[in-house]
Amino acid sequence: MAHDLTTQSDRLIEESRAVLRDNRAGGRHRRAVSIGKGSAEVKRNNLMTRIKLIGGSLIAIVVAASVIGLVIDGLGFTGIMVAFLAVVAATFLFSNYPKVKIPRRSDLNTGDVRHMVSRTELWLEHQRPALPPPAVTLVDKIGVQLDALGLQLEHIEPLHPAAVETRKLVGETLPGMIDAYRKIPAHLRREERAGGTPDGQLVESLGKISEEIDHVTRQLADGALDDLAIRTRYLDYRYGPGDLGAGEPGALPRPSAPGPDRQDT
Length: 265
Prior knowledge:
The chain has 265 residues and is mostly helical.
């Protein structure tokens, strides 16, 4: 019994030290910082909504207080205090509400690509506090990659193989893997099992997903680069290098330089 108690105490101490190391190493990454432009835009829109609600409520309170003051010929000290408290209450309320709605996992792979990216980024941000520091770093990287990938996917058909595969990878595989990790008790995430720890397996899987997102983005970008190269070659063929616009109707002819033997008469 004493041996068991000692073993449990040692394990608890080690887990506490691990949590402390984890907080020191990853605490800076766990702040509510946007990992991508999509999630940042959602938060910015939410902030603007709060500001508008605060401004509208303050105007309404001032107008209401002025009308009441005119009707009863002055608010008096009590009326001024009531108006002041109403201003404070409205400012406090709309400074905290409405909150940014964290999407559910089932809602990630829905809607157009732009909204899918922003929802996934918001969902990933909400998962960061439960992830080990190396995984947090990868999640931040994936957020930046999703921004670039979202721009590429906006210009292709929804049923394009790359779009379908990306939706499955980002909307199903990635959140499913993080959900499976979070279901594991915290004290078991660093225990080695089947040749690796859950922490290590999560980091490895996130790394593979990051590589795949980068691969798809580059593939889609290659098509745009090829299209640009074709258009550039056509312009060179049509107008000649550096002569863009010289053959267009109404274009002024280039002045010819005087020859060495040309003399003024």
